[in-house]
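Marked as duplicate of an earlier ticket. Keeping the data here for the record.
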Amino acid sequence: MLVNLNEVLADAKAKKYGVGLFNTTDTDMLEAVISTAEELRAPVIIGTAEVLLPAGELKLIAPAIIAAAKRATVPVVVHYDHGLTFDRCMEALQLGFSSVMFDGSAGDYAQNIADTREIVKIAHSFGATVEGEIGHVGSADSNDNDATDLYTKVGEAFDYATATGVDALAVSIGTAHGAYKSKPKLDLVRLNEIHNALEIPLVLHGGSGLTDDDFRNSIANGISKVNIFTDLCLAGNAAMKDGLEKNMAYLDIRNLKVEYIKEQVKKKMLVFGCNGNS
């Protein structure tokens, strides 16, 4: 069933489990995520991000994701992740996404508030939810994740959430997007302070590559939504490598790819504790 963030994250926040956002660029990933969620009876968030559109254009992938969400026997949020432009966020809403993230975190703080507030107004009129970001989650290819001055500040997070009316907030506490070159150091004290100051659910970006304990500790200290993408890509890569080495046929490799990605999704869902909550 197609739902928005509020319909899954309120329960996750209350019961202290995490809901995974698994970004997808094709129907192999889509099948893997939805089928695993149904097997585990887990709520799930699925979608794509603006930086991923060259690998799966919105108009091409959106109908498949939305149709799969509506058919699913568990709650599925269709979320547009890291929307960088107003036009693309509007396109996602018009195509039927039930949630969008507007990411103005790399720009001016006041402009981020103004832009986010406008998108919140419009998205809510669609019945959709909005995730914002304060602090900046950098890339694992750079040293941004070690720059503590880019971490989310409690006061700014509170002011931003109050001024914009966002339904969920992505925070920067030491994670980064992509494959980590060194072990990240998460600022769980900062996370707990933000959690205690805000009423809305908090989101952890850059989840791929964290340890199981990192996830559990982050969820225990206030995270309700965890974003995963790179680990799915690595699983798909491994499947294609293994399939080619075994001289498997194309469609058999495709099915192996779904199987490997499902294993990764299942592992994450069990660690997040969202299984059995739908």
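See parent ticket for discussion. Residues 2-272 form a domain with the TIM Barrel fold (CATH 3.20.20.70).
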